[in-house]
Amino acid sequence: MPRNTKAISREDKRRLRHKRKENLEDLKKRVEEFDPVENSKITKFDELPLTQETLRGLGESGYVNLTDIQREAIPICLQGHDVLGAAKTGSGKTLSYLIPVLERLNYEKWSDMDGVGALIILPTRELAVQIYEVLLRIGKFSSLSAGLVIGGKDYKFEKERIGKVNILIGTPGRILQHLDESSTLNLDNLQTLVLDEADRILDMGFRQTIDSILNDIPPQRQTLLFSATQTKSVKDLARLSLVNPKYISTSTDQEATTPESLDQFCVTTQLSEKLDLLWSFIKAHINTKILVFVSSSKQVHFIYESFRKLRPGIQLLKLHGRQKQKARMETTQQFTHASHCCLFATDVVARGLDFPAIDWVIQLDCPEDVTTYIHRVGRSARFGRSGKSLLMLTPNEETPFLKKLGSRKIAVKKLNVKGSKKKSIHSQLQSLCFESPELKYLGQKAFISYCKSVFVQADKEVFDLSKLPLEEYAKSLGLPGTPKVKFMDRAREGKGMSEGEITKVKAKKNASRKVMNLAKTDENGEAMEEKRVRTKYDKMFERTNQNILSEHYMQMTHGKAGEYDDDDDDGDFLTVRRTVDDVDEKDLPPLELINTSKRAMKRATSRKLTAKMQDKGSKMVFDDAGKAHAVYELENEEDFQKQGPADELKEQFLSGEKANMHKEDAVDKSVAKEKRVEKKRRRKELERLAKEDEVSDEEAAYTVVLGHGSEDDEEPDLERDLALGEEEEREKDDENKEEERPSKRTKMVAEPQEEDGDGGEEGNVIEIEQPESIQDLEALTEKLINE
Q1: Strand-pair partners of 342
Q2: 422-451: pLDDT as tens digits
Q3: Model-level pTM?
Q4: Which residue among 48, 182, 463, 715 has its CA within the 20 to 30 Å range from the CA of 691?
Q5: Which residues, 6 or more positions from 541, have their beta carbon under 8 angstroms from its beta carbon?
Q6: Could you give the CA distance from residue 751 to residue 743 in angstroms, rounded to a whole number?
Q7: Are residues 479 and 538 in the same domain?
Q8: Taking a C-beta distance cutoff of 8 angstroms, is the pair 430, 390 a contact?
């Protein structure tokens, strides 16, 4: 009985294999006889000649209806033709090549022993991960195996398993690394080569890498190229060894490749006002999902850190190519599942990535060309959903770039921003940079990287660094001054970068960091001595700071690493870095050029004199708004010239100052006259009281010192003057007791008058202070005349 059961099961297996073989042959015939023109009205996947495993995977993944590019491309790809596919972003190009890859290997009954049957190359890690996840879903019921190889992952883990992979997905750099180092990777039997975002991969940034990969794969293969902006370059097609390629485009208008459900807007703003406009936009759209594109990773870092401290009220994320792979994956997942979020990113996410339900795509910096613009805005309005995009252009970029968009029949609506809606954050950024040296350093690097991104562009009609207001732009970032740009002189002279220099820059940008660190090349291109491989323990002991920018920040504040290092940490503050014995005599200048005077030696050994010789910088003052100004500022020359000729302005200023001086002089004279009149009135009143013998002793003492007050005294102080009078009386008593000594005050005394010639009693004696001014002399004269 058991033997019969075993025999039956074997027979059933043979029947199943035979039936499967017949089904595959039938599918092949259906594929060969399939006419895309006659079947142009099909709308579902189950109407195509596909295997049951693939249809089941598509159904469980939610793919039921065909898109235009899928309806036209899948049958042609199944027939084995080389294909150039172009369609709008978000139109379903991924399934257009994944389904034929699965079906082609199923037809050939591919197994683990056959090696890699399909190679899919993508420009970015995030896009490779996304394609790999889609392949796992639709190929869930297939017997084929798939692998993902990208930078930032465990290379040893990939190396151990790459030999048993049937479909290999990866980025160009990591695939080339495995071809060079992994002995188990076998591409001799490769059936299909797929280049997604082909125009980007075939760009000169990946030229050497792609050429090396093409040299290691057989030329007899099927090649599929897909992109929203497909290349038709004869050189590129010749490099790929295409045989009678079929060009497929689903757009009725071959030039317009942006989604129809996308609303495109443009706003013109000054370079120094871009961050203000971006901040105001984010604050006004807190309950939306926003993707912001900028030119460089350093700009992404600075904007993210500064806006995060300003707290706009929405979740902020950043994504650029300089991040670790783990951080990039976490950010991608967070932004994918978030409903209200703002992501600052570079063009690393501009192609192919499917982030669901993006409401706004903001392009803070002008894209390098129309192709980049199309891919950026394509992150929104995917698969028929609605979306919006906003492009910010400077006045110099507006006219030429809008003409280029018009030549591709891309309609962009212009927007005008109301002044009341725009909020300025210049003072806040300036305060943040003043408080945080790390943020100021990030701002400086962001400034330089933006200038470099403009300088390296070949289209000088749109990108002209010499016309940009860099000083105002630096102030808008909160920087106290404008950083130096090495290539500014070349930009002013109109000298841009040559094609060779641009090629080197892009190749360096896309090159593997590991390969660049292991070996360097000299000027002749010859390989130099390889560096020692740094282990994780070396990295642990070399770690000095855990701030945002450890190594660069330490160089900024303490000079180059190791330049001021000393074995003795407890040494003097000022130490000699090297002695005469340590210096070669050839390095020393001639003796006649060395200042060896005593004054120079004293200045060199004195901390105080050395500090005086150093540049102490310039003093700054802050106004009520928190903006920094020099203590003495000159008016802008252009604004000064707009006011009129300098001679007329000089005469106006002098005449105005003369008028003000006359007014103040009249006021001073009136005040002085009032003081004199009041002083004269008081003196006459006291003299009258003295004559009538109605003055007491204290009042008499007060009378003596009253004339001693200055013209600045506005009101008499009786307590003070009486005290001074008593003091003088005490001095008189002391003079009677002691010998005569010179008096501190020189006084004028009226001569006594004799009565009846008999030497009677002396007349009244009035002691008067010596006149110190003309007014006092006039008052004394008038008094003597009256008596």
Answers
A1: 290, 316
A2: 889 999 999 999 999 999 999 999 999 999
A3: 0.61
A4: 715
A5: none
A6: 19
A7: no
A8: no
